[in-house]
Amino acid sequence: MKKILTVLFLLACFAKAHAQVSLSTGWKFKAGDSTAFSATNFDDSQWQAIDVNKPWERQRHDYYNGFGWYRLHVTIPASLKNSSYLKDSLRIDLQNVDDNDELYLNGKLIAKGGSDIKVSNYGPRHYMLATNNPAILWDKENVLAIRIFDTGGDGGLYGDKFSISMNDIMDYVSINTDADFVYGAKNAVGKSIKLISKGNNYNYKGKLDFKVTDPETGKVLYEKTNKATFTGSKPFTYTFSAAAIERKSYQLSYVFTDSLSGTKISKVESTPYILTPAPSAKPKINGPEVYGARPGNPFLYLIPATGQKPLTYKAVSLPKGLSLDVATGIIKGSVSKKGDYPVTFTVKNAVGSGTKQFTICIGDKIGLTPALGWNSWNAFGLSVDDGRVRTAARTMIEKLASYGWNYVNIDDGWEIDKRLPSGEITANQKFPDMKGTVDYVHSLGLKMGIYSSPGPTTCGGYLGSWQHEDQDAKTYGYWGIDYLKYDWCSYSEVSPKDPTLTDLKKPYQVIRASLDKVNRDIMLSFCQYGWGKVWEWGAETGGNSWRTTGDIQDTWRSMSEIGFNQDEAAKFAQPGHFNDPDMLVVGKVGWGPSLHNTHLSADEQYTHISLWSLQSVPLLIGCDMGALDKFTLNLLTNSEVLAIDQDALGKAARQVVKGNTYQIWVKEMKDGSKAIGLFNLSDKYQTITLPGTTAGTYKTIRNVWEQKDLTKGAGDFKASVAPHGVMLVRVK
Ligand code: GLA
């Protein structure tokens, strides 16, 4: 295939690389608390060795909240200081702290995350220490001790980075690549990037090297060096546009070199590329083939359909008690009689019509296919508010609901500080009218979700439902809630220290019983991080889904470690009861007020959505819906990919090939076909073979993302797959 890439115009900018001591090994850990743990000469030789890339829950401390100490013996070389252009401060980076910390160097408290260690303050830390601080022992062994307090859920020190480095001239500089890519003709993409400095008066003057590489061949397709100057008040902007004929990611590299200090900063990113074809103007009905509701409870279903507007909807053989709004496709009412009701939906517009056979199952089961929706956490964390939730709902109805997306879920951060005198819970000032918000969401034909904990407080330190379960369920019923995420968090404070299986099940049985007293279909999502192999008992305990892991982050390490380790839980997925490997990290995420583009590359995001869909799990978008870019929207609106997730058989894919650098996952579909993902886990392009014996006898292999048939006949199938990417096929 031909690969052409031209850079049309350039203007300006950015960069950083400097010496650092990177230490993720050699750490010792102890749960508990004592002032003696900070002392230089304290004997930690018997402490547990720990990996600071993973929460302590993943390292033998399953149910532990509270204090824990990390210690490290480290030599800080004077050469670090001597080779640095700026010589005034030593910098210590921790990523992340869950939830709050104090940092001791050779017995002295040198920094802390917040004034009260028991108040949640999750996130990365960048601590600075003057180089003449006597606490630093240059060229000698230093003892670094970190005291951490975890309020609930995952705890400790974890993430991608722990480092000790010199604060240098480039620490004030960032290469800001946050602008959305602009799409032109022939798969062209372009954007403006910025070289920004913040916090100093230095005059940066040097060059910006820009390079475009084809990762498949390693060939440099374009290279250009520009002069770049910038200061705190005047950033440097560089704009380019590149036409890429082939549908794949190209690597962009930006390196800024400052001529006076000789220091550099660099950044690499890959270009997004669109795979999902635009929907046809002709009506097409998307979404699942089945929908379950309980007899006598309020019923709400929006027929998801794409096609040129206006659309008109028709439903033949709706069960008694339901009615359809022919202009919006919203079905409402209530059915009193149990039974499986086959219904035919038809959607028409000026250019044609589309039909779908659908079954409404009135019985005990709800959530027959995994939830498709949005949750506030990965985007906004505790800074969620009513405006952001309404924006999510509005965006969902405008851009996503026609593909089946329908839940709008508020995570932690909505709760008031103190219950009302009656003991009732209510929302804080960020949600002035919760019932009004829920009514608004329902008026669009969408569903509303909320969050709580069985403990006295949630993981974010807000009020939990402890000893108020019936009362809270009643409030949710009054508001019209359709989905509850119930997060263990501080329940460890009230449960036995080493909970048995019975103890682990208890809070979920209690809330299930409370929800069942309410005259609504409320989906229950367990969030207890996979403890006690929850997949083995989540269904019988009343969970519609259960988290199988700790919290996801927007990194390849986090997403792939979670996603490719779901095989043990896979066989427990069934209609109404699904595994939950955590929410999606696509689009603009941030877990707080400031957001960034996901750190997953385009190929990693194709892997993420493919793997989650193959595994029949809830897909909960975790981004700012008000800032959905074209790539993210395209990623989330592939009806054939979503149909894999929503398949009525409800089976999760199994890992059938686990190679060193690639994996194959196969999911059985209701129509007898198979959905298969060929995943490249390596950093290089590779050809992956799907053996004919795995594919079975087939007539066609369909490329699901591109929605086109690839080959006919049987035998081995080979595909060239991008680094960290996927070939997702449907074998019929
Ligand atoms: C835990 C959960 C997250 C989120 C936060 C809210 O960490 O695992 O998904 O709900 O709590 O505080």
From TrEMBL:
GO terms for molecular function: alpha-galactosidase activity; calcium ion binding. Gene3D superfamilies: Aldolase class I, Galactose-binding domain-like, Golgi alpha-mannosidase II, Immunoglobulins. This is Alpha-galactosidase. Residues 660-731 form the Alpha galactosidase C-terminal domain. The lineage of its organism: Bacteria, Pseudomonadati, Bacteroidota, Sphingobacteriia, Sphingobacteriales. Its EC number is 3.2.1.22. It catalyses: Hydrolysis of terminal, non-reducing alpha-D-galactose residues in alpha-D-galactosides, including galactose oligosaccharides, galactomannans and galactolipids. GO terms for biological process: carbohydrate metabolic process. GO terms for cellular component: membrane.
